[in-house]
Amino acid sequence: MDVISGAWRRTAAGAGLLSPDGRVAPTIFAEMSAAAARTGSVNLGQGFPDEDGPAEVLEAAREAIAHGANQYPPGRGIPDLLAAITEHQRRFYGLQVDPDTEVLVTAGATEALAATLLALIDGPDDEVVVFEPYYDSYAAIVALAGARLRTVPLRRPDFQPDLDQLAGVVNDRTRVILVNDPHNPTGTVFTPEVQTEVIRLASRFDAVIVTDEVYEHLSFHTPHVPIASLPGAAERTLTISSAGKTFSTTGWKIGWMHGPAALITAVLTVKQFLTYVNGSAFQPAIAVGLRLPDSYFDDAAAIMLRKHELLGDGLRAAGLEVFAPQGGYFTVADASALGGADAAAFCRALPERAGVAAIPISAFVARENQAQYSGLVRFAACKRVEVIEEAARRLSGLR
Asked: Phi/psi class of residue 134: alpha, beta or left (left: φ > 0; alpha: ψ in -120 to 50)?
């Protein structure tokens, strides 16, 4: 008996998990992590840090557990975290947000994105525009919601979109323009011209702008500028972020979003039937984190930039062409000169060949567009300095 639902098939297909004969394939992320474990490789594939976050944030979580914060928190989030989010947005970006009606705490940014698209998509005629390559969950969630994914390519060397191509994709069926900035996997930070065009097109076609800003405090050369802070955007923008990348607490899954009250209420209506609530003891700890002094956020970006520089030096010494990131966790390199024109094959061979694991950019691209990104590989820099140095030493043997 075939009991697999259409929603399951749509989601698996959107995530690139269905082989041509309809079987489920493991993700390249799982495959590379298994290869790293099997070979004792340095795992620069998975994008999570190997260092704990700030001591005061960790201690706040322990204190919360000890003092009974172990049951369901309020559906929108604990009041202190809602207040801390609004303070953070005002402090860094000058945004005025109502903590009672315009903010929602979520189980990480991924749940925020899922609840948002499920709330906003009406049916198969709706389209969601994303920049490609894209974080792999985007396609899966769009498929689950029953919409059509439309992509705008980001091409080397700067990974900025062509504005005419963007304008050619957005139309009166566009329900959502989804912007990840700083961008995973390319590390680009979108220019003011790109942001302005997104706002213009969203206004023209009455689309909602959804921003994924989880790397907001890891913008290396220019301060992060949320689209919601720009003229004409706030009334149609849902801003999503999370604590995982900023405070090295990816396992806590504390995210948040803010935007117009009516849109937040729509998302809450869906979200309450997903996780309902989460992270009761972690929410007060993240409130502590959001109130840390500016020096913490400045240092976090400077430290991550230094790790990227070390990684980039090692990749160049190994013979790869490196595209220095402007933000985020990841460095993209072209392995074509080392026989890596097929980046997936290169990554599958790399653990045995050099003792390092990485992810091909093709994992973030629709199957029909993968040829445009041949040779490109993503390496995670969010590891201890000694781990990056060891990876660079191992990669040096590729030449």
From this structure: beta
